[in-house]
Amino acid sequence: MRNVMMRICGWLATAMLLAGVLAPMASARADNGVHDDSCDDFPGAADIMHGHRIVMVGEHHGTREMPAVFGRLVCNALRRGNTVAVGLELAAGDAAPLADYLAADGGTAARARLLSGTTWRSPHKDGRQSEAMLRLIERLRVLQQGGAPLEVFVLTDRIVQDYREVGGIMAQAVRRRFASAARPLVVTLTGNVHSGTNPPAPGRPEPMGYLLTDLRPVSVRLLHDGGQAWNCRTGCGVHELARTSGDQPLLALQPDAAGQAVTRQVTLRVGPVSASPPADSEAAGSAR
């Protein structure tokens, strides 16, 4: 009986700890109710996570809103009692600086160490180095240090010799977390190409999502209503975006070769988007 009571007390303590970590974030509401810093539920969140252990979120790099939506999804998953492993589209050279930052105090020196990583120092600012991404990582740091059962890892966790290897490297990183003893919900944030589950076009690399279809993932494509994003597609800077088309049903099942539905294709429209510039040393402080 004593052992049972001790276990119950332990569970209650964990629940209270998570409530204390998540409650402050749940109070930060935005008018649009989607891209804010809360942990509140939003339409489709339960369906996105139900019955699956891999959720791959595909974004358009370089906006403020899409990393915020991702952070809300992670926080919501923790609130539902999941152990969560978050995979970010960062390189092997970012792994140590990321781990250091997550264990640090989030101050100036810690941010400088994080921004010394490979992806952040790249002259090709494709949006993954944005202030919004830094803000997302800070949010994950606060959750993790508050006791949430949360792991954060880089998806490209070894040196890439050929770009065609990227999808396979990412898929292997996800599989390792999927097979771990903790049995976490694995949630990834990448560009839409990597999270796609359709077969690649001839001569194109295999997307991470396509290589994971045997594990029945959910592929979430973030849509927007136009606006701006920071990227380097036609020179690095702020670029105008047209509204992304597509409003397929929230849950569209993709059948495998045998006709069995194994993968959920999901869209989530986040509304208008705004550009998030690179998180250089001067801008980094504004992400706190």
Fold and architecture overview:
By secondary structure, this protein is α/β, with parallel strands linked by helices. The chain has one domain (2-287). 34% of the residues lie in helices and 18% in strands. It has nine helices and nine strands. It has helices spanning 2-26, 45-49, 65-79, 95-103, 108-114, 118-121, 131-145, 166-178, 192-195; strands spanning 54-59, 84-88, 150-154, 185-191, 218-223, 227-231, 237-241, 252-255, 261-269. The strands form two sheets. It has a seven-stranded mixed beta sheet, sandwiched between helices. The chain has a two-stranded antiparallel sheet with strand order 6-7. A hairpin with a 5-residue loop joins strand 6 (227-231) and strand 7 (237-241). Helix 3 (65-79) packs parallel to helix 7. The longest helix is centred in the N-terminal third of the chain and has 25 residues, at 2-26. It is globular and about 40 Å long.
